């Protein structure tokens, strides 16, 4: 286990107090409160799901697709450009720039989720929910960053991007115990809100073949326990699939006839199917909101060990391929089956939306004024919108008309405002390791795309593009005003911390 400044004693006392106060203040369980199951794949591309690609690929994802069949599919859904950013946007309802969680850096880094930022788990537990997180976290690896210190009753999962955890198996990895202790990754962690933390051992290449099954087993145990206790649950299930590198067990090798990556997708879809069937077997499918999405766009530069998207470029860029991802949601009796939602929606929107579904539609306003939850006082600016009226058909308009694109260094890359997208900085290297090595290029004039007719951002390759953009200088002032409006919110609610870094600061 890496050396991570553990402060167990104080945390035990704090967590015990939090549990006691939370139990006293929690809203009594109501049959109207839905269970909530949010499933994240990892680096899953828009085109990896047959619900989106229409059968174009050599494999299919019928279990994941069933969520869209029984509910809704988003076409303009935005995650973030990398793992930490996407996961933090979901769990905090804030832009990564605001929390500083656009990148946490390397094992043992000081950056991680702050106790000053309430999570969706914190807020749902206050409403009487049991909260469990299973699978990948990637929001900091010190004890104070673990999910069970941020609103979750139980956590079982890994703490990093997948390939970082197999590096100790490289033949040239330093064998010095002090090096491993200081710089090596922690193992798969099982922790509880009472302060108990167990390291279940390293996530080796062999364990990677089936570790999602381990996470699945614990998630299903957690869900079944809450159903038997007649308590609403919020479960965040995060798979390691489809992050590189893909290691599939023998029983899945050759399953699709389309290569090891496709076999991994097949395994992933089967695992999601098992979880969906568990919900049905427990008799709570009719009162459970189920979401499937991912943290960021695919990392195509490692093809064939890579996801696929029709959008330009890939993760860690400001192009649509880095941010626009698949997202599906079902809620029987509330979201019409077979719906396609074309409005702009983002990961940040899930916090106010799901908390509203659980019974509090005013959480955004409450947190702006200051809200006491348990023994903590929170005063934060949620960037997400309550999309419940949109999801349930009470309005045909998304509450969101803009989306801000941030780099993993916290730079403003672009703005989508209505149908137009404005690039202020671009990554000229659109694939390969240069995406991560080379800096973004700052533009003196925004590069504009009309995503309603050019969703794949191909327009600038055409001979008429420069004139088209030249004749649309009138679009720049509204964009500048919108950016100013966003930036003004940082005066009262500034970034929580500087993002992590892979180079010395």
TrEMBL record:
InterPro entries per the UniProt record, alphabetical: Alkaline_phosphatase_core_sf (IPR017850), GAG_Ulvan_Degrading_Sulfatases (IPR052701), Sulfatase_N (IPR000917)
Stretches of the chain forming a coiled coil according to its record: none
Sulfatase N-terminal domain mapped to chain residues: 34-359
Alphabetically ordered keywords of this record: Signal
Highest taxon of the lineage: Bacteria
Residue numbers carrying 3-oxoalanine (Ser): 83
Tagged with keyword Lipoprotein: no
PTM comment: The conversion to 3-oxoalanine (also known as C-formylglycine, FGly), of a serine or cysteine residue in prokaryotes and of a cysteine residue in eukaryotes, is critical for catalytic activity.
The protein, known as: Arylsulfatase
């Amino acid at each position: 286990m890496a050396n991570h400044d553990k402060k167990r004693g104080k945390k035990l006392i704090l967590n015990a107090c939090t549990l006691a106060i939370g139990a006293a203040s929690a809203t009594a369980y109501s049959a109207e409160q839905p269970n909530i199951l949010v499933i994240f794949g990892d680096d899953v591309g828009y085109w990896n799901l047959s619900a989106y690609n229409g059968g174009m690929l050599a494999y299919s994802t019928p279990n994941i697709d069933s969520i869209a069949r029984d509910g809704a599919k988003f076409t303009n859904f935005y995650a973030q450009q990398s793992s930490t950013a996407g996961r933090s946007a979901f769990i905090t309802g804030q832009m990564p720039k605001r929390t500083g969680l656009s990148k946490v850096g390397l094992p043992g880094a000081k950056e991680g989720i702050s106790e000053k930022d309430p999570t969706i788990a914190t807020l749902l537990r206050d409403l009487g929910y049991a909260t469990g997180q299973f699978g990948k976290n990637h929001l900091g690896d010190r004890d104070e960053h673990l999910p069970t210190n941020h609103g979750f009753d139980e956590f079982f999962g890994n703490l990093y991007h997948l390939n970082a955890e197999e590096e100790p198996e490289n033949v040239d990895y330093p064998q010095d115990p002090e090096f491993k202790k200081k710089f090596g990754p922690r193992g798969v962690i099982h922790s509880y809100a009472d302060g108990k933390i167990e390291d279940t051992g390293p996530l080796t290449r062999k364990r990677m073949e089936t570790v999602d099954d381990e996470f699945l087993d614990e998630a299903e145990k957690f869900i079944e326990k809450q159903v038997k206790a007649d308590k609403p649950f919020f479960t965040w299930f995060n798979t390691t699939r489809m992050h590189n590198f893909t290691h599939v067990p023998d029983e899945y090798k050759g399953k699709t006839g389309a290569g090891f990556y496709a076999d991994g997708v097949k395994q992933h879809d089967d695992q999601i199917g098992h979880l969906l069937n568990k919900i049905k077997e427990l008799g709570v499918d009719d009162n459970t909101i189920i979401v499937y999405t991912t943290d960021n766009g695919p990392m195509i530069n490692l093809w064939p060990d890579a996801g696929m998207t029709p959008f330009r470029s890939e993760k860690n860029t400001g192009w649509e391929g880095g941010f626009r991802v698949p997202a599906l949601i079902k809620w029987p009796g509330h979201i019409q089956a077979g719906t396609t939602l074309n409005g702009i929606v983002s990961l940040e929107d899930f916090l106010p939306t799901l908390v509203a579904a659980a019974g509090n539609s005013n959480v955004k306003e409450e947190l702006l004024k200051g809200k006491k939850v348990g023994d903590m006082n929170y005063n934060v600016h949620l960037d997400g919108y309550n999309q419940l009226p949109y999801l349930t058909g009470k309005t045909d308009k998304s509450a969101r008309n803009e989306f801000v694109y941030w780099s993993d260094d916290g730079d403003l890359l672009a703005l989508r405002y209505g149908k137009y997208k404005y690039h202020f900085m671009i990554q000229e290297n659109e694939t390969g390791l240069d995406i991560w090595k080379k800096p973004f290029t700052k533009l003196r004039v925004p590069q504009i795309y009309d995503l309603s007719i050019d969703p794949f951002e191909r327009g600038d390759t055409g001979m008429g593009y420069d004139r088209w953009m030249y004749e649309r200088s009138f679009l720049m002032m509204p964009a500048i005003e919108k950016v100013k409006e966003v930036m003004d919110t940082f005066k009262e609610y500034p970034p929580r911390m500087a993002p992590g870094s892979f180079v010395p600061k």
